[in-house]
Amino acid sequence: MSAKGSDQASRSAVPHTASAASVPAAGAPQPHTGATEGPALDRRGRPLRDLRISVTDRCNFRCSYCMPRSVFGPGFEFLPPAALLSFEEIARVSRACVSLGVRKLRLTGGEPLLRRDLPRLIEQLPRDPGMEVALTTNGSLLERHARALAAAGLARVTVSLDSIDDAVFQRMNDADVSVKHVLAGIDAARAAGLGVKINAVIQRGVNDAGMVDLVRHFKGSGISVRLIEFMDVGNTNGWIAGDVVSAQEMLTTLDAHFPLEPVAPRYPGEVAKRHRFADGSGELGIIASVTQPFCGDCSRARLSAQGMLYSCLFAVQGHDLRAALRGGVDDAGLRQQIAGVWQGRRDAYSEQRGQPLVTLGRPRKIEMSYIGG
Ligand code: SAM
């Protein structure tokens, strides 16, 4: 059974329904029924190692680079609760993915801590040896939930914090959440024994002037800050190339303040290029998704809150696993569908971004809040 569909999080388009896409997209997965024994490899030989699971399309922030209020305002229709995969359904998909080679499950959204009883989901996720369950959060609700998340088996959290300057941070989140709430969440996470990293999207003219202060704040704390190039995810964030602060530019600026030395990757496909402070006070990472694409090593699949499986952050098309789950598919059939999507995968959007002949006429991308960041 092949249940492919395109979906967009935009009021001007049908928000979340799966419908047949008429144009085969560059890099869109081509399900086929290949062998499903052992780890799955895609058409470029890339293994399936990570599954990002969006547990909700809702967020309490309205960051302009992700969920601008002008689009995701009061009238925006989010998914109704019945459309969301249940925890049991998410756990089934996760188990199938683990049997195909996945070693890291990351819960995301939207804002994952808005999903009620999230620790109950974490308890149900597979925990094979060498596996890790992580969470990406804006941190605003972390103080309240950190202990229960850790007790349920969560290993680490990545907290998105774009500026340590309260005025800049509040302007960016557009939700009146102050830096001190996020810092309290980070403290609670560490006290609960969770590993913590910080993600910051750096945008020219928005928060680039505060990048050094952000890094300085966490330097020596044992928490690594990862600076991310502003990406053209979705269709609503007004991305232009001129707003991207390149990894090289970030590195040059940072190195002038804190001399840095490159650190070898821990494993193939490590997303952040790591650098250690020459004075021994820790390290930082830079994620150069735009200027130095890492599609060649990408091992990530994404499961949307309503059960669409995507093989690229920039996908225009997904595969409807919810239909399969609710249609009574057995475990072998579920595994076979996921393997088929992965084995047909050719995605390399970031490598092709600058090639109009490849990307021209490409249907609209799925929004990041929906596909899962
Ligand atoms: N709400 C959670 C959070 O804030 O971390 C999880 C979802 S959010 C979509 C996941 C990550 O995607 C965040 O670190 C966010 O900064 C990043 N992100 C969103 N839009 C982005 C963009 N246009 N470019 C780069 N990173 C982006």
Structure description:
This protein is α/β, with parallel strands linked by helices and 373 residues long. The protein is globular, with a radius of gyration of 20 Å. It has a 13-stranded mixed beta sheet with strand order 1-13-12-11-2-3-4-5-6-7-10-9-8. The chain starts with a strand and ends with a helix. It contains twelve helices and 13 strands. Helix 1 packs across helix 9 and helix 3 runs parallel beside helix 5. Bound molecules: S-adenosylmethionine (SAM). The site of S-adenosylmethionine has 20 residues, from strand 4, strand 6 and helix 12.
Rg result: 20 Å
Unreliable spans are: 1-35
Mean pLDDT: 88
Question: Could you describe the largest sheet, including whether it forms a barrel?
Answer: 13 strands, mixed
Q: Total strand count, please?
A: 13
**What structural class do helix, strand and pairing data support?**
alpha/beta
Q: Give the cofactors and ligands.
A: S-adenosylmethionine
Provide the β-strand percentage band. Answer: 15-25%
**Order of adjacent strands in the largest pleated sheet:** 1-13-12-11-2-3-4-5-6-7-10-9-8
Give the overall silhouette: globular
Number of helices: 12
User: Helix share of residues?
Assistant: 25-40%
Q: First CA to last CA: what distance? A: 28 Å
